[in-house]
Amino acid sequence: MGGVKLEGLKTVRFSFADQHGVLRGKTLAASEAEAALEKGVTVTSTLLLKDTSHRTVFPAFTPGGGVGMPELQGAADVLMVPDPASFRVLPWAPDTGWFLCDLKLQDGRPVPYCTRSLLKDALQKSPYEMICGLEVEFHVFKVIDKNLRSSDAGQPGTPPSVELLTTGYQYLTENRYDQIDPVVELLRENLSKLNLPLRSFEVEFGPSQFEFTFNPLPALAAADAMVLLRSAVKQVARRHGYHATFMCRPNLPNVMSSGWHLHQSLQKSSRNIFSDEKQDLSEIGMQYLAGLLAHARGACALATPTINGYKRYRPYSLAPDRIVWGKENRGALVRLVGSAGDPAARLENRIGEPAANPYLYFASQLYCGLDGVQRKLSPPPSADTPYEANAAFLPRTLTEALAALREDAYLKRALGEGFVDYYCRIKEAEIARFQLEVSEWEQREYFDLF
């Protein structure tokens, strides 16, 4: 059992990250956990067929389960196979252990829609090791009303009513940080017990907005850390009367969008191959950068997978709006960090939102960058004024991003055409539901006018 100690535990959670990066799974009595480690834990395959409202998008009871796979037909079970190295004891949940799992079919083959397996496959194909550093922004609010009404049963339901912890707009001031420090301390205490490599805790620019950063990790470990971070922060906050959200742009006055900036580099034989003694970025690093830019539109739906996330791409907002790069420029899509001789030279892609599935985000970045290396692409000149550059724009909507993904022949081959079609169909169902809703903007604009 890889050194896993279950003594003293009463329950053990077995979880997997679904297509949205949300942890799902089952909780077993500790007495059943040892057998589960050997045989896996069954879960219904319909969990892989749902959109963000938890509605099943595909007709699971038709031939092939709606996705052309007889193994999933009729809501058949798949297996959660725990990774012993992922084991944690959850400090906020009494006597509870936790495993992160991969999804397997009953015959032991990987489920093709298991996003953790998809990243593993990308890393296995790469001649280099991908190293990732995470900068994650999110909001935490004080809950004043949970809004759990019997008339509002079902999903998604009405979110809680909240109030701010800070008014914001005093970026990195110590006084504002001290206002949120009791909550940061609560989160930090629990996260440190999970052995997450936290590096810094910051008060961000917006009201009630935080940023946590991580020390660099190999890509799979970084992706695992991200799903655990999000789940832990939300659970700990909720148990203490707070609401944490990794939604990009909550609908609150004067709010600031949250981003997820992904620092990335490649290693070979424990050496950073982006580092160069004579220039800011090595030749391979520049080729990787060119690949990120070449496929930026196609990869966007995997880095910003929600309708809400596209409200972040605004000029002069510290978020990108077009496909450019710059040295130490936070307005660019890709920021080159480092200088000649810097052993930590790296690329920071600022495209992502914190709600992204990290396995898909990282896999798409690796595939894009490696395509640039394999084809020896050269990036265009850096953009000193990124919001005024004559360059292609990022997709303005999730609909546009999904179309770009479907049109990117290379990414479709790399990720698998079947997976890309599956992913786009789920996100298109989400968009279709959104388009049927009457928004507050429409009500204000037209109700009294016509």
What's the short version?
By secondary structure, the protein is α+β, with helices and mostly antiparallel strands.
Fold and architecture overview:
The structure is a single chain. By secondary structure, the chain is α+β, with helices and mostly antiparallel strands. The protein has two domains: 102 residues, Ubiquitin-like (UB roll) (Roll), CATH 3.10.20; 314 residues, Creatine Kinase, Chain A, domain 2 (2-Layer Sandwich). Helix content is 32%, strand content 22%. The protein is built from eleven helices and 17 strands. Strands 7, 8, 9, 10, 11, 12, 13, 14, 15, 16 and 17 form an eleven-stranded mixed β-sheet that branches. Strands 1, 2, 3, 4, 5 and 6 form a six-stranded mixed β-sheet that branches. Strand 1 and strand 2 form a beta hairpin. Helix 3 crosses helix 4 and helix 9 packs across helix 10. The longest helix is centred in the middle third of the chain and has 21 residues. The radius of gyration is 22 Å and the shape is globular. The chain starts with 10 loop residues before the first strand and ends with a helix. 46% of the residues are buried. The model has no long low-confidence stretch (mean pLDDT 95).
Radius of gyration: 22 Å
Which residue ranges are poorly predicted, with pLDDT under 50 across at least 5 consecutive positions? none
| First-last Cα distance | 68 Å
How much helical structure, as a percent, in the residues? 25-40%
β-sheet strand percentage? 15-25%
The biggest beta sheet reads: 11 strands, mixed
Order of helices and strands: EEHEEEEHEEHEEEHEEEHHEEEHHHHH
Q: From the 3D structure, determine the CATH topology of the largest domain.
A: Creatine Kinase, Chain A, domain 2
Number of domains: 2
Give the number of DSSP strands. Answer: 17
From the helix content, strand content and strand pairing, which structural class follows? alpha+beta
Task: Tell me the CATH superfamily of the largest domain.
Answer: Glutamine synthetase/guanido kinase, catalytic domain
- How many DSSP H or I helices? 11
Averaged pLDDT, please? Answer: 95
- Quickly give the CATH architecture of the largest domain: 2-Layer Sandwich
CATH class label of the largest domain: Alpha Beta
Shape: globular
